[in-house]
Amino acid sequence: MITKENLNSYLTFFSDSKLLAALGSEGRILEVKSGEAIIEPGQFIKMVPILLSGSIKVLRLDEEGRELLLYYIDPGETCALSLTCCSSYRPSEIRAVAEEDCIILSVPVDKHEKWTEEFRQWKDYVTDSYRIKFQELLRTLDAVAFKRMDERLMRYLVTKMKQLKTNELSTTHQEIANELGTSREVVSRLLKQLEKKKWIELGRNVIYIRDDFEELITHMN
Question: Exposed e or buried b for every residue in 159-179, given b needs 16+ CB within 10 A?
Answer without folding.
Answer: ebbebbeeeebeeebeebbbb
